[in-house]
Amino acid sequence: MKQAVRENEATQAADTSAVHLWLVLWKASRAVRVHAFKSIASQPICGSDFAVLEAVLHKGPLPVNDIGRKVQLTSGSITSAVDRLEARGLVERRAHPTDRRTRVVHLTREGRRLITGIFAQHERDMEHAASALSPSERATLIRLLKKLGLDAERALGESATPGEPQNATARASQPRRASRVASKGRI
After folding, report:
1. CA pair distance 84, 116, nearest whole angstrom
2. Weakest mean pLDDT among 47-61, 63-77, 152-166
3. In Å, what is the CA distance from 99 to each residue of 52, 66, 124, 171?
4. Which of 53, 104, 170, 173 has the CB geometry, 3.0–4.6 Å to 165, for a possible disulfide?
């Protein structure tokens, strides 16, 4: 029995197929994403508000539409998020210095105080989630994932949009196929 388990583990370790790589990435991403969502859910703001505040904290004042693209929110969702944050006194919209059509989102003093504290806790939570990897392993993984992602986008011939397969067939079969393969113990 133990020998069969060892042989199965050896077979799994030797599987370098693209499908196996995708499944491992998918499961690892899902597990880390759960840590991120739990971290944010424990805070007094929702995920989209966190994303907006974090973007402005780290990138500086940004036009509303730029924030939406960076945090992958639709124009309606980004407007709602900024409206909520503005109503709470966490951000303010100001006129763009050279483009009268554009509104730029700035953190208020209270917004900066709130997101600085929330982000510090989120950073600690994510350090815990990634604690299995050494700094050197993290650097290697980051480099390899960037290489893989950029080449996958290049192969598509366009910038990949997460969660949106190129056609209806792929959209319909992706989740079921992934769960069927994953349930066979390949990962």
Report:
1. 18
2. 152-166
3. 21, 14, 39, 39
4. 170
